[in-house]
Specification:
The complex is a heterodimer of chains A (263) and B (788). Chain A has 10 helices and 12 strands. In chain A, the strands form 3 sheets. Chain A has a 5-stranded antiparallel sheet. In chain A, strands 9-10-11-12 form a 4-stranded antiparallel sheet, sandwiched between helices. Chain A has a 3-stranded parallel sheet with strand order 1-3-2, with no helix packed on it. Helices cover 30% and strands 22% of the residues of chain A. In chain A, helix 3 (75-81) runs antiparallel to helix 4 (87-94). Chain A is globular, with a radius of gyration of 18 Å. Chain A has 2 domains: 5-163, 2-Layer Sandwich (Uridine Diphospho-n-acetylenolpyruvylglucosamine Reductase, domain 3), CATH 3.30.465; 168-261, CO dehydrogenase flavoprotein, C-terminal domain (Enolase-like, domain 1), CATH 3.30.390. Chain A has helices at 12-18, 33-38, 75-81, 87-94, 99-104, 107-113, 120-127, 140-143, 211-219, 244-261, and strands at residues 5-7, 24-27, 46-49, 59-61, 67-70, 130-133, 137-139, 158-163, 168-175, 182-191, 194-200, 208-209. Chain B has 788 residues and is of the alpha+beta class. Among the domains of chain B are: 10-32 and 205-284, Aldehyde oxidase/xanthine dehydrogenase, molybdopterin binding domain (Aldehyde Oxidoreductase, domain 4, 2-Layer Sandwich), CATH 3.30.365; 418-463 and 636-788, Aldehyde Oxidoreductase, domain 4; 484-630, Aldehyde Oxidoreductase, domain 4 (2-Layer Sandwich), CATH 3.30.365.10. Chain B is globular. Classes of the chains: A alpha+beta (263), B alpha+beta (788). The interface between A and B is medium-sized, with 15 and 23 residues.
């Protein structure tokens, strides 16, 4: 990697100030950023670690009954601590990468990066989560704007993610054979006012909601309610590991499985 | 009863203590005082003409010691090829130059263009990025058949084409084979790809070149499976350094799988640069560099035809294979698709007529050479796949068809120039049917079906030729090296023993298994025997470890040397006991006079050899040290039968290996635990090839699988618990231990079992599928189920 300056602020305000420098980059777990730096594919002038900010750590419930996860909370902690309240979310967090990744990588880092094959974006979108930043609150439906693209402004920091808890939910991931990222991942969340279905890994536009499946499942939350539903291959990712048609097919298969597994 | 020491005991691997506790001494652990570091600037295009290289800015950067380009190697030899194949027409193969650093052209992504030596690795890398290289990009050739078209761009301008050789074996059989096909009652044809693989040893390659102005000696520390071979090739053919001034050390090496046999440019560079600079130069490969600079494996495209008579006897076999050499000839590349492949096409079967045609092709890709199994997996895969296909076409049981055609008389001279000394293929198949519980398959099939999964069973046999190799034979076949092995057994004064072996352990467990043999022969404790290997300054000239040769060839040299020790020690004992040498018996570390209670201990004899106060000095030299060289009279022919059961998810195409059983005949076994471990590792790589691994290039010669994000390595969770058995034993008839090689068997025998099983599963579901090319990834299996 190239040389860079390093700061580890202890408050959000200090972090925001530190990120005002040109080419400064937030570091929150670094499970994507550090390999990128090692390959010399990025050259930030300064890394601002968000790992020393106490107010961005930990998990609690708010008065609205939402699970509030500090943005710098590692996946392993989410996997352990929300298992009772939101088992589908805990299972998703517990299935990201390997133990080393889960103990370093954070929910805020994952959502800010918005890798099209990452797991967390599907949970946030299917749950209708609220992305809280140092400046505002962003609904998940507004937040994800395409592959590696989000509503975050330059220097804006995710501080917390608030998850409404569905009546039942499940995440089913089909792993890409090499990277073990999601070749396709589907998160289904059933709320009193309807079902939300979010798909990661499949689309060239990143995580998305599958409206037809949501309508069908809202009417009848059963796997066979999806019979006959399919997605077009257009716009799906095609690579060594699967064609666009294969990914579109997997979305339907995994959505059914998620409905069957929902708890 | 299992033994608890000596030959046949599962002694625990003594070397694992240091490996597992962080005390191993790998090449990257070696640092020479004042060393500099090299970073190689590598081509990012597959084919291009080097217009200019401007190093002036880079040379002025902090810490830069010197920048080398191809011009610096103008007066230096290129990397040699160790095997010359003669083509169907009696002509030698086309053999291009292989410069240490690119000269004139770059020929694959990763081809080194320049080398920056600097005070730190970071400075070297920074400066490499500041080198201005202008390359006129040329069209790349990637596909082998396209590379042979008349208008294809040439990888090497000075060759007549991209064809390295067109080899026919046995050429004289060609017409007879064709005639047999004319008469056949049934012909089964299969076209398949044995895909390109990257070996991926856990330890990437490293080289440290050192030079002493005081003695004019060069030392290379390197991640090699054969340090003497590197010394010979690099000293004699590349750099012109005589052997007495060149030491090559291959210390602990973290896996090789063939890819660390070869002499690489980085080794020659570090040795050369250290002499030029009178300063040690170190290179440590990154994993990314390994993907584009370690020799790759396999990459064959094959059409195989099997002819059968009306009674389902195999009457002839014919194959046509395109074998990718990559951009240059790696050290033993030409031998892999020819002598390590064509000679195995008989398999376990008495097919009387065989013709193998191989066209080796240059392309703008990383050079391809031996990878665990090397030619023999390619032979086994196509043969065992075509037999399975034939059984389906004929509506006969695939096991019965194999049994019907088994070779049963030994020795057996195949029509492809090798003579199997021993084997019992029915015995290993019987054992397989038992340990794989084939009788219980139908019940497991029903249970899978109840869960919505498609279950399939695949069975195959394999034979391989290993314990490489009789030197006079391989010399006739084009080898430019001997393939004997050496050992020096040095008995120390107090009775402990150092065995200097030319074999090299990079995971095999020689430090455990070799002492078991020597200790057993002498009747002493294994802990008294130490193995020394991997250093040309400490061991006799040996050829190293590959081709499952260490115990069969290196172990035989050690037995020969130990027998010389015993003979001399008996003479000393006879003197001490005042008895006739013919009456001396050695048992449990005691020399005794037959029929008496007179004896003398091992340690008393060894002490007498070095403190010869009471010693027949007029008849015998003091000391107790013997060297032996052993050149095998034949290959060894391990064989076996493997069974794989898979489940296929009909919705996703995902294949899981549910059961895998391997019944192997390795002859006599020194350490059953180590042998089982070798089979386990081989199976992991074979199943990895069948289901996961595969290197891919795009049409421009860019490597699409340049990291673990896209190159799928098998993980523990991808593999089942294996059932392995090596109780079927027909000992090798021509080496003193009766042993056969076991290191490659798992990787050779397992891919067809997996693919046979998947095809079986899909056909049981009604899919008209006869073949799917490896790796059988979920997307490929799903596409096949869609009829694509």
């Amino acid at each position: 990697m190239y040389a860079f300056d390093f700061e580890k602020p202890s408050t959000i305000a200090e972090a925001v100030a530190a990120l005002k420098d040109e080419d400064a980059q937030a570091l929150s777990g670094g499970q994507t950023l550090l390999p990128t730096l090692k390959q010399r594919l990025a050259s930030p002038s300064k890394l601002v670690s968000l790992g020393g900010i106490a107010e961005m750590q930990g998990i609690c419930h708010n008065d609205a009954g939402q699970i509030c996860i500090g943005a710098a909370t590692p996946h392993a902690r989410v996997a352990a601590e929300v298992a009772g309240d939101y088992p589908a979310l805990a299972a998703l967090a517990g299935g990201i990468g390997d133990p080393a990744v889960r103990n370093r990588g954070t929910i805020g880092g994952s959502l800010a990066n918005n890798d099209p094959s990452a797991c967390y974006p599907s949970a946030a979108l299917a749950s209708g989560a609220v992305i809280v930043t140092n400046a505002r609150q962003i609904a998940a439906d507004e937040y994800f704007q395409g592959m590696f693209a989000t509503a975050l402004d330059e220097g804006e920091i995710i501080t917390e993610v608030r998850f409404p808890v569905p009546q039942s939910a499940a995440y089913v991931k089909f792993e890409q054979p090499a990277s073990r990222f999601a070749l396709v991942g589907v998160f289904v969340a059933r709320f009193a006012d309807g079902v939300r279905v979010a798909v990661t890994g499949a689309s060239e536009n990143g995580v998305f909601r599958w409206a037809e499946a949501e309508a069908a499942l809202s009417a009848n939350f059963a796997a066979d309610a999806l019979d006959g539903l399919s997605l077009p291959a257009d716009g799906m990712i095609a690579d060594l590991h699967g064609s666009a048609a294969y990914r579109a097919h997997l979305v339907a298969v995994l959505t059914k499985r998620a409905v069957a597994n929902a708890s | 009863m299992p033994k608890d020491s000596g030959i046949g005991a599962s002694s625990k691997r003594r070397e694992d203590v240091r490996f597992l506790t962080g005390a191993g001494n790998y090449t990257d652990d070696i640092n020479v005082h004042g060393q500099a570091y090299v970073h190689f600037l590598r081509s990012d295009v597959a084919h291009g003409r080097i217009v200019s290289i401007d190093t002036s800015d880079a040379a002025a950067m902090p810490g830069v010691v010197r920048i080398f380009t191809g011009d610096d190697f103008a007066g230096v030899g290129g990397l040699p090829c160790g095997w010359q194949v003669t083509d169907r027409f009696g002509q030698p193969m086309q053999e291009p130059a292989h410069p240490v650093l690119a000269q004139g052209k770059v020929r694959h992504v990763g081809d080194p263009i320049a080398a920056v030596v600097a005070d730190s690795p970071e400075q070297a890398r920074d400066a490499a990025e500041a080198i201005a290289v202008e390359i006129e990009e040329l069209p790349a050739v990637v596909d082998m058949k396209a590379a042979l078209s008349a208008d294809a761009p040439k990888v090497h301008d000075d060759l007549t084409s991209n064809l390295c050789y067109d080899w026919g074996f046995v050429e004289e059989n060609k017409d007879a084979v064709a005639a047999a096909f004319e008469k056949a009652a049934h012909v089964t044809t299969l076209e398949l790809v044995n895909q390109r693989l990257v070996a991926n040893p856990m330890e990437p390659r490293v080289a440290v070149g050192d030079y002493s102005r005081a003695t004019d000696e060069s030392t290379l520390y390197t991640t090699s499976q054969n340090p003497h071979v590197i010394r010979l090739l690099m000293g004699a053919f590349v750099l012109g350094i005589p052997e007495h001034k060149l030491r090559v050390v291959a210390p602990d090496v973290g896996g090789g799988f063939g890819t660390k046999i070869f002499h690489y440019a980085e080794e020659a560079f570090c040795t050369f640069a250290a002499r030029q600079l009178a300063r040690a130069v170190k290179w440590t490969s990154s994993r990314s560099e390994a993907f584009m600079s370690d020799a790759h494996g396999r990459d064959h495209v094959t059409k195989i035809e099997l002819a059968l008579d009306a009674d389902n006897n195999f009457t002839a076999l014919r194959t046509e294979t395109y074998a990718n050499m990559g951009a240059y000839l790696s050290t033993f590349a030409p031998s892999v698709p020819t002598w390590l492949h064509g000679t195995l096409m008989a398999g376990n079967y008495k097919t009387p007529l065989i013709y193998v045609n191989v066209k080796a092709v240059f392309t703008n890709t990383v050079p391809v050479d031996a990878y665990r199994g090397a030619g023999r997996p390619e032979a086994t895969y196509q043969l065992e796949r075509v037999i399975d296909k034939a059984a389906r076409e004929l509506g006969v049981d695939p096991i019965a068809l194999r049994r019907q055609n088994f070779i049963t008389q030994f020795p057996y001279a195949t029509p492809v120039a090798v003579e199997y000394d021993t084997g019992d293929y029915h015995a290993t198949m019987d054992k397989l049917e038992e340990i794989a519980d084939l009788a219980g398959f139908e019940a497991r099939l029903a249970e899978s079906k109840a869960r919505g999964k498609l279950r399939g069973l695949g069975v195959n046999c394999y034979i391989e030729a290993c314990g490489i190799a009789p030197s006079n034979l391989v010399g006739q076949l084009g080898a430019r090296a001997g393939l004997y092995e050496s050992a020096t057994v040095r008995v120390n004064a107090t009775g402990s023993i150092s065995v200097m072996t030319g074999s090299h352990s990079h995971g095999q467990g020689h430090e455990t298994a070799f002492p078991q043999v020597v200790a057993d022969m002498l009747g002493i404790d294994e802990s008294m025997v130490e193995i020394v290997h991997g250093d040309t300054a400490r061991t006799p000239m040996g050829m190293g470890t590959y081709g499952s040769r260490s115990l069969a060839v290196g172990g035989s040299a050690m037995v020969k040397a130990t027998n010389k020790i015993i003979a001399k020690a008996k003479k000393i004992a006879a003197h001490l006991l005042e008895a006739s040498e013919a009456d001396i018996e050695l048992k449990d570390g005691q020399f005794s006079v037959a029929g008496t209670d007179k004896s003398v201990a091992w340690g008393d004899v060894t002490l007498a050899a070095y403190v010869p106060h009471n010693y027949p000095l007029e008849d015998m030299e003091p000391g107790l040290e013997e060297t032996a060289f052993y050149d095998p009279s034949n290959f060894t022919y391990p064989s076996g039968a493997y069974a794989c059961e898979v489940e296929v998810d009909p919705d996703t195409g995902r294949v899981t290996v549910e059961r895998f059983a391997a019944a192997d005949d390795f002859g006599n076994i020194v350490n059953p635990m180590i042998v089982s471990g070798q089979v386990h590792g081989g199976l992991a790589q074979g199943i990895g090839q069948a289901l996961l691994e595969g290197a891919a290039y795009d049409e421009n010669g860019q490597l699409l699988t340049g990291s673990y994000m896209d190159y799928a390595m098998p993980r523990a969770s991808d593999l089942p618990f294996y059932t392995v058995d090596h109780s079927c034993s027909t000992p090798c008839t021509h080496n003193p231990l009766g042993v056969k090689g076991c290191g490659e068997a798992g990787a050779i025998g397992s891919p067809p079992a997996v693919v046979n099983a998947v095809v079986d599963a899909l056909r049981r579901q009604g899919h008209d599928i006869t073949h799917i090319d490896m790796p059988l990834s979920p997307s490929r299996v799903w596409a096949a189920m869609q009829g694509e």
